[in-house]
């Protein structure tokens, strides 16, 4: 099963396989799911393998009270001293590697489990649709992965008629005493690295235009965002370019290969679909809408597994980075709050 809601859309599209094999076919719309691991082949689901229905948010609103979507808006991620200590140790190790010149930035993540023996999935979908109207919201179920859902604010690549757009989304802040603090040099530098790497990757494939950085609202947080647009020159298709961009410095680090190896060797768990990408591709038109799989969770064995992370540089402070992951957890924490013990 798959359902998704495009940013600011009012219609949820549901795909039901009814037990049919999810084989890739040459025509029609496809849904791509790419995990974080670069050597992992993507799963490609063709719309012809599914029965499809659409449901409007207005129809769901007749079933669920609008207030239900906001009932847990004050949800706060629980503190775990062991998890905090482990994350601090990982960050300290990364900072030592950065200061020794091995790499410039690395994005480190963690996963937190919540018991949830009973879940009203339609109610969860309703809450998911309400959490961030600017996000790509989805839920999918697959025997190999369990259930995954998320509300990601980050476009990896959007292509239509050879025109493309992407974004650098790096740097995070949240309100303190009802105001957002000023961006620091650490956040601007982190953002600039992401912009530079995206431009470098795309330069052989497109004429490029880079905008100025601005604030992007994502739920209760803000990120620094720079839009990059242009026109593809035919040297690569949408899927080829998306796979070259992945994983960006915003979810991996810089230099990419060194940061990737550091994550695999030190993070201590398998990210699976977290910080991969997913979305729609039309091979006949070479059009695509791919999103980085952030603000997401998985459900397996009666537990939600909630994934969060942040970029580490030489200026990072472990406690601040821990607090950032706690704040990021609230996006999906709001969604699942009624179902967790």
In short:
This protein has 341 residues and is an alpha+beta fold. The protein is built from seven helices and 18 strands.
What does this structure look like?
With 341 residues, the protein is an alpha+beta fold. The protein has one domain (2-339): Anthranilate synthase (4-Layer Sandwich), CATH 3.60.120.10. It has 7 helices and 18 strands. It has helices spanning 57-63, 81-99, 121-131, 185-202, 238-245, 256-266, 318-336; strands at 2-5, 11-16, 30-34, 43-46, 51-56, 105-115, 136-142, 146-152, 155-160, 163-174, 206-210, 214-218, 221-232, 253-254, 277-282, 287-292, 296-300, 303-312. A 9-stranded antiparallel beta sheet has the order 5-2-1-7-8-17-18-6-14, with helices on both faces. Strands 3, 4, 9, 10, 11, 12, 13, 15 and 16 form a 9-stranded antiparallel beta sheet that branches. Strand 17 (296-300) and strand 18 (303-312) form a beta hairpin. Helix 2 packs across helix 7 and helix 3 packs across helix 7. The model has no long low-confidence stretch (mean pLDDT 92).
């Amino acid at each position: 099963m798959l359902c998704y809601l495009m940013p600011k859309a009012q219609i949820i599209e549901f795909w039901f396989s009814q037990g049919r094999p999810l084989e890739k076919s040459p025509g029609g719309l496809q849904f791509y799911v790419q995990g974080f691991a670069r050597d992992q082949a993507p799963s490609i689901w063709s719309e012809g393998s599914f029965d499809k229905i659409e449901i409007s948010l207005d129809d769901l609103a007749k079933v669920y009270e609008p207030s239900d979507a906001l009932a847990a808006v004050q949800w706060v991620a629980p503190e775990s001293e062991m998890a905090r200590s482990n994350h601090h140790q990982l960050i300290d190790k990364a900072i030592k590697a950065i200061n020794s010149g091995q790499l410039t930035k690395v994005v480190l993540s963690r996963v937190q489990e919540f018991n949830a023996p009973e879940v009203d999935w339609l109610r969860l979908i309703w809450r998911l649709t309400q959490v961030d109207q600017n996000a790509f919201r989805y839920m999918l179920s697959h025997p190999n992965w369990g259930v995954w859902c998320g509300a990601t604010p980050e476009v990896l690549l959007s292509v239509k008629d050879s025109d493309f757009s992407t974004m650098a989304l790096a740097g995070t802040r949240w309100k303190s005493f009802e105001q957002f603090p000023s961006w620091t040099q650490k956040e601007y530098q982190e953002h600039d690295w992401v912009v530079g790497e995206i431009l470098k990757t795309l330069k052989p494939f497109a004429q490029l235009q880079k905008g100025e950085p601005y604030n992007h609202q994502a739920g209760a947080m803000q990120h620094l965002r720079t839009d990059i647009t242009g026109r593809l020159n035919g040297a690569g298709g949408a899927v080829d370019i998306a796979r070259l961009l992945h994983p960006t410095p915003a979810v991996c680090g810089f230099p990419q290969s060194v940061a990737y190896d550091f994550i695999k060797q030190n993070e201590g768990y398998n990210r699976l679909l977290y910080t991969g990408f997913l979305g729609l591709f039309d091979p006949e038109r070479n059009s695509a809408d791919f999103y980085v799989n952030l603000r997401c969770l998985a459900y397996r064995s009666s537990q939600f597994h909630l994934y969060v992370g942040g970029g580490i540089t030489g200026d990072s402070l472990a406690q601040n980075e821990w607090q950032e992951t706690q704040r990021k957890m609230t996006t999906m924490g709001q969604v699942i709050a009624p179902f967790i013990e």
